[in-house]
Write a structure and sequence with these properties.
Radius of gyration of chain B: 23 Å
Structural class of chain B: mainly alpha
Strand order of the largest sheet of chain A: 2-1-4-3
Radius of gyration of chain A: 41 Å
Strand content of chain A: under 5%
Number of helices of chain B: 11
Number of helices of chain A: 23
Distance between the termini of chain B: 70 Å
Oligomer: heterodimer
Structural class of chain A: mainly alpha
Order of helices and strands of chain B: HHHEHHEHHEHEHEHH
Largest interface: A-B, 57 and 62 residues
Largest sheet of chain B: 2 strands, antiparallel
Shape of chain B: globular
Number of strands of chain B: 5
Strand content of chain B: 5-15%
Low-confidence stretches of chain A: 481-594
Helix content of chain B: 55-70%
Chain lengths: 594, 215
Amino acid sequence: MAAGVAAWLPFARAAAIGWMPVASAPMPTLPADNRQKQEGLIAINVSGHKFQTWRNTLERYPDTLLGSTEREFFYHEETNEYFFDRDPDIFRHILNFYRTGKLHYPRQECISAYDEELAFFGIIPEIIGDCCYEEYKDRRRENQERIQDDEDSENQNEMVPPDMTFRETMWRAFENPHTSTMALVFYYVTGFFIAVSVMANVVETVPCGTLPNRVKEVSCGERYALAFFCLDTACVMIFTVEYLLRLMAAPSRWNFIKSVMSVIDVVAIMPYYIGLVMTDNEDVSGAFVTLRVFRVFRIFKFSRHSAGLRILGYTLKSCASELGFLLFSLTMAIIIFATVMFYAEKGSTASKFTSIPAAFWYTIVTMTTLGYGDMVPKTIVGKIVGSVCSLSGVLVIALPVPVIVSNFSRIYHQSQRAEKRRAQKASKAAGQALVCKANPMFDTHHNHLLHCLEKTTNHEFVDEQAFETSLLEVSMVKQASCSSSMSSSSSNQGLSCCSRRNKRKNFNVPNCNMTGGHRNSIQELSTIHIRERHIANSRSNLNAKFEETVPLNCEHPYITAAVITLPTPPVTTPEEDASFLDYSQANIVRVSAL
Amino acid sequence: MGALMVIFSLQKDQRRKRTDSVEDELELSAVRHRPEGLEQLEALTRFNRKELQILYRGFKNECPSGVVNEDTFKDIYSQFFPQGDASKYAHFLFNAFDTNKDGSVSFEDFVMGLSILLRGSVQEKLNWAFNLYDINKDGYITKEEMLDIMKAIYDMMGKCTYPLVKDDTPRQHVELFFQKMDKNKDGVVTIDEFIDCCQNDENIMRSMQLFENVI
């Protein structure tokens, strides 16, 4: 609740007089008002700048320096003021916090100076208002990063702690090639062999002139088969060794095997081994050839060496839905235009558009503005359709691309910001939970006001959790035999009484002690021994105080509450408290005797 | 063509200026509201100078413009009853405080109402309560009016109550009220019946004195 609204509490309490004639129960008594009623100005001198405020303003936050007795340490008798040798510009914001309840962060101030002042005056930064919180956290993070960078660059010149195991050293070498010369060498060697292997795959297929006894041209792969085979073997051996080493060094082998890079590695070297195993059988050689295609995946091994490739992969993954949409819309357009084209060209002679699937090829080529020219419409309608197709193709393809780009940019920044805010919210909530101490006197009076409302309506406030658990229990206990002996109360009431007996926090449950001997008629029956009931909003503490300050007719003030909750006895004339309680206690007894 | 455009834009400007000036007037009038002097208020109410100062500071904090309109009033009052919906009861309260029916509660209205509630005689307080319940100010509290008030009060409790507030709980409560207050059983409660009955009820008398030292 805003600090300012506290000033309206007297009004709210005065307005409560409107409930009095309607209330059917006596009101609770006032809490003891031992406030000192000190209404005075406090003069604060911060390095020569004079500030003044009401004493009450400062005391709104009793757990800070200015709001507690800690300020007495800074009291200066000669000038009758409190003197602080701190920054007056920042103090202005701190004093405003007391006045308005909101702490602001001035953008022109240095973040560490501000933090120091906050720490000095005992204010937790998490209560900075929403308007300034993001800025504050950003600046703070930048500052931390700067400090961290400074420390890191110091660390880098130091020696690595020598107590790392060989396995850890190896893993570190694999992941950060810059850490040692061996790692760097390894990095470059593998990179070189990946390049060599890919080049070899490419060159293999180049035609290399004719063999003396053959007419056809042969590819280099066939001509220098042995050389290529040796090269391939060498590369695959290096890759295998690298993979096994990484597997050995990985801190978590299962995670490593699951990772994308490991899959790529395996796929890159598998074809070779499969080829070794398979013989020169005619049937399987076709499949073998297909397998060699997978060797091109070796090029993806470069993504360990290139951050850009990794970012591209992430982009595609994150824009998968947009790409899917692009594909879907293209497919729709292709089908539509192919169909129209087919029927348009059906009439013309020697038309290449033999079927709709055949027209697919034309549509794709036209929409992507390739225009090979192997299929061309001849009729006028066909030509018109073809032109519409190419125009729409430009649009359909050009539109999602910026969307994907902007999507990527948005997703990227959003995820950064969402993570930032999530982290901030967690710490902010944690900080606020510590801080939310309103004026205790305000709380007392506010609770008394709420209590008056409860008495007016004969119902009590219940916090959400207890409410929900009691609802659950009503449904559970409904099957129990509880309801059968409920003569006077409706099933809902009685059941909630039952559940109340079992589940209410801090009830001195199920067993029945006699309450002090003033109910003689029901001695042989059990009763609910109700001690102080603890409501989440701490009103019970006040009730405990009530017991001391005001002698009520009954020893257990909350028994009246329990009693009143039974609807049937019309509680219009509560003069005779004893008989009243007697009657209703009897009711309670009937409930609990089950 | 150009002349037409110029004329058109001029007209728009004029219209805008007119509406601007009307808005400005409203704003100025809202901003300009200042309460009567301390001396007059001291004479009108039963508060002393210091208490009036405290009250005004709190008032001005929430309503820098000097008057409370109904929405702000509902907002402020709702903050004291977070579990339920206090807007209907706040509406009735607002009408009770807004004695001159101009749609806003000025500091004078506020302080005069508080003076009755906190420092008035029992007769005055009961009068005020009757005025609150009598929604159409015709001198009689009918069952419908009482039902509205009762529902507004129960709304403030919210739904997380023990026991659950059933649909006819307000109605039952109204029946009880009428049984007690309506002596001649004519279906309405007049001011005399109300005051008589309350003065004979110890609990009500006691609770009326409850908030006397609130400031």
